[in-house]
Amino acid sequence: MVNLKEKPFCLSDEALNWVEETIASMSVDEKVGQLFVQMRKSLDEAVIKDTLNKYHQGGLRWQGGDRNQVYNQNKVYQENSKIPLLIAANCDNGGDGCLSEGTYVATAAEAAAGPGVKTAYDIGYVAGREASSVGVNWMFNPCADIYMNWRNTIVNTRAYGDNADRVIENIREFINGIHQSNVACCCKHFPGDGVEERDQHLVLGVNDLSVEEWDDSFRRVYQTMIDEGLESIMVGHIALPEMSRKLRPGIKDEDIMPATLAPELLTDLLRALDLDVQQHVPALVHGLVHVEPWGAVPIAHELRVLQKLVLLNPLFELLHGQEVVMDSIRLSGPGGPGGGGHRKVQGGVAG
């Protein structure tokens, strides 16, 4: 039996009651829907309501929009969702990743090029403040990739360095900055980009490191972040052939799949990293696993719905699923979206 009062969940009695009551009240369709992060298709309120009623999505992602559009969009989504949504943004360089008026701070490469790690912290801090002001509670950052191949165009300036130690110290500070706004983080792109030259968004990516090389690089990055309480991990459309061969002796080349579709990488490898720090919860992944490019956990399982609810509750102070109240945000002035203002939330996302 999973004890949700213990690490890594650490729920209070009130939070635990909310999780148990909420999941007990959900239909099978609602539980399945919670496993999907959907891309916004329309700003029309009627379309949003219809989408939520039909698909019961667990998360939201969007591209583009100014602070008024994004704030209103997220407000409509939260007010019309039975289960408070995880609303995600992609802020590699600061607040400009979620708002057209957002603040650009620096690229990861710029941050890592200088002494210390303060710039990485500042990127996270500004991104968290500006994103949370418009309702974001989940950051698809930091990029935990290692820039081993200078011809890689996907990682490029998004990476904090070409070695694990430099990446670890910088993404740790980025996460610390984000956490000043009570926004969850998501390291990407497991099992690791930056080794080859293909675009994993378009074709199969291949991380061709040996098992020993991977253990001494990407494993250290992900294991460190998991040990320190990372909430979620994004899985890339990237194969790790040597590890697949180790975990599945005799596997044929044509059966080697990217991590998004490979049980030996998702179940055997990634979960093993997490089990190192939560042996008392042998069936669960710490937090969430987001699979790119489709944005869905591949197997619908009630325990994973539970994880989503658990992640929502302690981070964003959910109280019995009541309506989100964000009226204290002004849409203009220093306290408005992008300006670091505060808002009152009852049973919703505090951001």
The mean pLDDT is 80
Cα-atom Rg, whole angstroms? 20 Å
Name the helicity range: 25-40%
CATH superfamily: Glycoside hydrolase, family 3, N-terminal domain
In total, the number of strands is 9
Shape: globular
β-strand percent reads 5-15%
Total count of helical runs of at least 4 residues:
12
- Domains, number: 1
Task: Examine the coordinates and then state which fold CATH places here, giving the name of the CATH topology.
Answer: TIM Barrel
Order of helices and strands: HHEHEHEHHEHEEHHEEHHEH
In what order do the strands lie side by side in the largest sheet? 1-2-3-4
Q: Tell me which CATH architecture applies here.
A: Alpha-Beta Barrel
Let me know the largest β-sheet.
4 strands, parallel
- Please identify the top-level CATH class: Alpha Beta
- By secondary-structure content and strand pairing, the structural class works out as alpha/beta
Commentary on this structure:
The chain is of the alpha/beta class and 351 residues long. It has one domain (13-316): TIM Barrel, CATH 3.20.20. The protein is built from twelve helices and nine strands. The protein has helices at residues 13-24, 28-33, 45-55, 67-79, 108-113, 118-132, 164-178, 211-215, 218-227, 241-247, 263-275, 302-316; strands at residues 37-39, 59-61, 86-89, 138-139, 186-190, 205-206, 232-235, 238-239, 288-291. A four-stranded parallel sheet has the order 1-2-3-4, with no helix packed on it. The chain has a three-stranded parallel sheet with strand order 5-7-9. Strands 6-8 form a two-stranded parallel sheet. Helix 4 (67-79) links the parallel strand 2 (59-61) and strand 3 (86-89). The longest helix is centred in the middle third of the chain and has 15 residues, at 118-132.
